[in-house]
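Changelog excerpt

This revision adds worked examples to the README so contributors can see how folded entries look when concatenated. The first example is reproduced verbatim below.
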Amino acid sequence: MIQFLQATLVHKLPWRRIVYLVAGALLLGWLLHTPPGLLGKADAVGYAVCHRIAPRSFHLGDRQLPMCARCSGQYLGAMLGIIYQIFFVRRRVGRPPWKVIAVLGFFVVIYGIDGLNSYLHLLPEMSRFYLYEPNNTFRLLTGTGLGLSVSIAMVPAFHQTMWRYRSPKPAVEGFLPLFKLIAIALLLDVLVLTGNPLVLYPLALLTSAGVLVLLTMVYAMVWVMLFRMENRFERFRELLFPLTAGFIVALLQIAAMDYVRYFFFGTWEGFHFG
C-alpha cells in the first residue's frame, strides 16, 4: 500500500498538480478571510500561535505588531538560524559540540524561567511569587535565544530526512560561529528595540513568515517519513512537492486555530489583560 501511494503521489503528474492547486486554493481562501493588508495577514498568523496581549507586544506607531515580544524574538531567532543553515552551511547534519549544546540549553532554561515569571506576574493572586518585574526587552531576548536553539536542532533533522547527500559536519562547529549568530541575533533585537518603523515593518513580516516556514518544514518531514521517501532528494526543486504538502497542513492548522479563536472571541485583537 505504501509503495502504491509513493508511486501515485510522487511520480504521477496529475497528483502533483492537484496538490499545487489545493495549496493555491487554500491560500487564496485564507487570504480572502483574514484582515486586509500585509500586516493584517501577519496578524492572522500571529493570532493562531500567540496571545497578542498589547502591553506585552511592541508597536509600530499605534499599531500592535503581529506577535508579542517573546514570540517575535522566538521566530526572529528561528528565521536567523534557518537562513544561516540553508544558505551558508549547506546540508550539515552533525551534532554540535557539547559546549555549543550547553549554551543553547542555557537559552532554553532562561526562556522557561522568564516565561514562568511573566505568567506569575499576569495572575494577581500569584504576583508575590514572581522573581522580577517582567519587561518586553527580556522577553524579546529570551525568545530570540530559544528560536535560535530550535532552528539549530531542527534544520539538521530536516536535512537528515530529505537529502540523499549530506555533510556529517555540525552546522555550528564551535563557539566562534555560535557567537557570530548570537551577535547577529542581538543586532536584530537592538533594531527591534529602536522602534524604527522602517525596521519594525519588515521584521514583523519576517517573524510571521517564520511561523509558516517552521510548520511547513516540520510537516514536510512528516509527509516524507509517512510515505518512506527519506533521503531521496538531490536538488532543491525536488523538494517543492513535499514542501507544498507541508505548507497545506501548516496553513490548515493556522486557519483552524484562527477560526476557533475568532469563533469564541469575535475579534482579531489579542487578549485584554495583563
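The second example, added in the same revision:
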Amino acid sequence: MNNEKNIVLTGFMGTGKTAVGEILAKRLQREFVDMDALIEEREQRSISRIFAEDGEQYFRAIERQLVRELANKQNMVIGTGGGAVLNPDNIRDFNRSGILICLNARPETILTRVQSQKHRPLLEDGEKAECIRSILEERKSVYASVPHQVDTDTLSRKEVTELILQIAGREN
C-alpha cells in the first residue's frame, strides 16, 4: 500500500482504535496519532480534567482544530476520540484526506474493555453499562454513516488490522 492517504479509525470508546491503530501504523511504517492523547499532551491535562474545568464544548472546539490540522497531513494512522465524528465537518475533512473506518463492538464487549479505566469522562456519572448503551444509541446513526465498518467484538487486534488493510487496499 503506497498511497499516502491517512487511515482514520473512529468509533465508540473501547472498540480498539488505539490498540489497532498502533499495530496498523507499525505495519505500514506510518506515524500513529491518538487524538485524545495529543490533546492531553498539548493541554497538559487529562480529557477528564478538560471536561470538568472547561466543559465538553471547549473540548470539541480543540478537537475540531486538531481534525483540521491532521486532515492536512498525509501518510498517517489516526485514532479519533469516540465523539469526534459527532461534528459532520470532522467526517467531511477525514473523508477528504483519508479512509475513514468505524470500529464497532457490542455494549457488553465495550463494558468489559473499559470498566476498570478511570479516564472516561462520559462514563464517570451513573452506571457504566447504561451510559454505554445510551451514548451508543445516541451516536448510532453517526457511526453508521461512516463509509467503512469493522466489528471488533470477536476478532483479535491482528485480525482487525488485516481487515483494515484489506479495506485500505481496495480504496487505493
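Reviewer comment on example two: The chain is about 55% helix and 15% strand. The chain has a mean pLDDT of 89.
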